[in-house]
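Interim report, section 4.2 (structural modelling).
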Amino acid sequence: MNAALAVDLDDIQGLVRFGYKHHTEASFLLLRIRDRDAARRWLASVPVSSALTIEPLPEFAIQIALTAEGMRALGADDAVVDAFAAEFVVGMGNDANRARRLGDVGANDPSRWQWGAGERVPHVAVLLYAMPGRLAVLQQAIESQCEAGFERMACLATSDLDGIEPFGFTDGISQPLLDWERRRAARDTERTEYSNLSCLGEYLLGYPNEYGGYTDRPLLDRAAAGPLLPNAEDDPGRADLGRNGSYLVLRQLRQDVHGFWQFVDGQAGGDAERRERLASAMVGRKRDGTPLIVPAIETIEGGGDPKERNAFTYRTDREGLSCPLGAHIRRSNPRNADLPPGPGGLISWAKRTLGFDADALDHDLVASTRFHRLLRRGREYGPGVSIEQALGEAPSGNDPGLHFICLGANIARQFEFVQNAWAMGVRFDGVANESDPLLGIRSPGIDGVPTDGFSLPRADGPDERIAALPQFVTVVGGAYFFLPGVRALRWLAGMPREAPP
Amino acid sequence: MVVAPVAAGKEPALRALLASMNSAPGLADPRNALVPFGAFERLHFARLVVLDDALQVDLEVYGVEPARLPTWLVFIGDCDGDAGDALADLAGRAGAGLARIFSHCEGFAEGSDVLAWMRARDRRAAASFVNWVGRSVRQVREESALQRALSARVPRQALATPADAQRVRAELVDHVAGEVRAGRLALTPPEPTPLGWQLRRLVHLVAVPLVGLAALPFLIVLAPLLVWQLRTLEKSDPEVCPRPRAADLEALLELEDRDTTNQYTALGAVKPGRFRRWLLIVLLAFTEYACRHVYTRGFLARVQTIHFAHWFFFDDKTRVVFVSNYDGSHQGYMDDFINKVGWGLNVLFSNGVGWPRTRWLVFGGSRIEQSFKYFQRRHQVPTQVWYKAYPGLALVEMKRNHRIREGLERRAMSDAEALAWLRLL
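Predicted structure of the assembly:
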C-alpha cells in the first residue's frame, strides 16, 4: 500500500472496524458533564480501544462519543463545534423540522422521549463492551471514575439475544465492506454495478468518500492547535480534528413484539405457515436470515460468500414478486447502482442517461445505494420474547427493543436520507401510501389518505394488500454523537480552555 | 410570472401579510382571504416570493462593484390553458386581495387596475419544464379518484386462469361506468389543444433549428476560440461556496416536508462578461426547446420528480431565478441533481457566480458534493407562500393513475395486458 494512503488504525476507535461480537455484554452510559476539569482529566486518560487487531482479544472495550452540547460543555470554541456537520450541531431531538423529516412525530415525538430532547441531551456516551460475565466489573470501575466529572443521565443496558433482534429475525447480516486498504481510487466515476465495497470516507472524516471528495469538518490552524492532531489529507498545512472520527447516530427503538406477532397472526388467520410467510415478506428475509431473493448468481464486489446471505441484488426481482418492493431490507438497502441496468454499449448508456429508455425510467425511482449506506453497530435490549409468548401471554410491560447505532461521515446523506426517504417515505420504488412495514409511523398523508398498508405483489393478479398496520416500533430516545479519533479525543480533553476570540 | 419591486419600507409589512395567507409555515391555505388559490380550478401551483440582493456581494470576487438592486416581489403560477386568461380570472375573482398584496410594491396606487398592472409586469420564463404537458388539474384529480375507487374495488386474489383478468377488468369497467352515471366519478375527456398553441409550438419546433442552422457555420469557425475561452474561464472563475448560515438554513427547513412535494426558489448572479451571458442565453434557449418538444412526458432526463420548473432572467439578464416543485425531501432532490443530472445542472448553472469548478461544462461542478450542497442552499430563498392543487399526490402516482385510466378506456386488451392493468391497481 502507498504509504501516503496508510490508515492509522490505532487512531480510530474500534467500533468503526469491529462489532465486538465476542464482547456479548454491553452497556451505554449517557453522561452530562458536571465538572469540566474533572471530565477533561478523565477523557484525557480513559483507555479507548482502537481499531488495531489485538490477540488475544482483550476482556473489555471502551468507546467514547460526544454530542455538540458535550463539546461545548468541555469548553470547545463555538467556531470549532460549528465547523462540524449542521445536523450534528443542531442535534436530533430539539428541532421540529428534523422531527418531521425523520418521522419523529406522534408516538415518536421527542417530547415523549426518555432522553435526547429538551434538557435531557447527553454530553458524552461511554460505550462499554465486555466478554461474558465481565461487564459489571467494568461498569462499576468506569462509573466510579466518572463520578467526579459527570452526572449519569441514563444507562442503556443491552441484552445478548444471539444475533436475533426482538421480533425474532436474524439481524446485522448486511453491512458495507470498508475499503481499509484504500484499493479503490478516490475519484468520481459512475458505477453501473452494485458494490458492497465502500470508501472509507463514507464512514470516517478526513478520507475521500464515494464522490472522491472530503466531507466538511473542523480544520484548525496548526500553530494554534498544537502538534497532537493529524494533518488534513486535503489541506496538509492544517490540523484535522475530524480525521479518523465518525458520526454516531444512537436511537433507542422500543419494539412491540406482542403487537407485531398478534397482528401478523391475525392477518394469517392463526395459520403458522402463513404467519411466517407474511412476517418474512415484511422483513425481506426469513427469520433465520435467508433472503427471499435467491442469491448469488451474480458476483458482487465485497459481497462475501453467498452462504453469508448477503450476495444478492434485486435485479432479478424488479417487480417485487419474490421480495416485496416495500420490504424492510429492500427499503434499507436497495442494492442498486448509479444507473438502471440495461444492455451494454454506448447507445444504451446514452439512452438511459438522457431518460429515453422508458423501461429503465420505470426502474429508476430509487436513489443510488452507495451514497446511502449505514454501518450498523446496534445492540438489542430487554427480554427475548418468543413467538409463542408474544401470541399467548400478556406483555410484561418491559418491552424489548434496539439501541440502534449507525456510523457515517454524512448524517444528512446517510442516516437521515435512509430514514426519511426509504423507511418513512410513503412512496418508495413506485409503491405509494405505505412506509416501512416495521418502522413506519402510519400517520395519514396531508390529504388524509392512509399510509398504513403493505403490498405483496404477485404475478397472477393484483397485489395482495395488508391494511391497517399498527405502529410496531417507537422511538424513545436519540442523539447525534461524534466518535472522535483517539488523538482528537485527547485534544478535546486538553484543548485551550477558552480560546481567544 | 408577475414581478414588481417592493416599495421602500414596506417589506416587513408585506412579509407579514404573506405569512397571513398560510395555514402552516410556507404552505398556503387554499381558502385564504387574500387569494383563495383553491377556488381556481385550473391552477396547479402558485408561489409568492420576496427576492433580495444579499448575494450580489459575491460579484466582488470579480472586482465588480455590485449594483444596488431592488427587492422584488414575485408571483408565479402554473396553470392549464392560456396564462393571460388565468391572470384575468385571478384579477376578476381575487382582485381585492391581490391589490392588498401589490399595494406594497412600487407603482401600485390606490385604485389601480389590478389586471392591467399585473399584465404590465408579467414576464416570460427563459425556459420552462412541465412534467406532463397537457395534464390538467381536473384530470389529475379525476384520475386519482378513479384509482382510489378501483383500488378499493378490485378483488385482491390470484386469478385462476389468464382469461379471468378479462372478466375482472370488464366488471371494473362496468362498475366505473355506473359510478360515472351516478355522478360519483368523473372522467372528463381532455380539452382539445387550442390551434394557436399547436401552431406556435410547430413554429418553435422548426424555427429554432433553422436559427441554429444559420448560426452553425459561424459557430464551427469560432469553435476553437469559444472552447479556449470556456476552458480559460473555467480554470480561473472563482468558486464561492461558503457554508450557509445556520439561521438561513433553519428558515428554509421550516418550510419543507409538509407535503409530499416541496418547493425550491433560488437566485444568483450570472458571471460577468459577454461570453457567459451569451452562453447562458443560448443554453437556456436550448433547454426551453428540449423541454417544449422532447421532455414533455414525465421526465427531464433521468429526473421524474419535478412537477414544474422555470428559469427566469432578472435585472437585465445579470441574474437568474430558478423555481421548481419536486417530490420528496430536499436531500433527495439534491441526490437526484448530483447523481442523475449533474451534467445538466453544470451546463446551465456553471454560468452563475461562484458555482463549484466545472470541466468542459459538464464534468465536476455539482459532483463536488460538499461545495455544491453549500452553494445551492446558500442561493435558495424562502418561498413565503406556496400552493399545490393536489396535496399528498406525487408524480409517480399521477403517472400510474393515468395508465390506469388509459387501460380503462381501451376497447380491447389481450389477457396479458388485462392482467398487467389489474396489477397497476
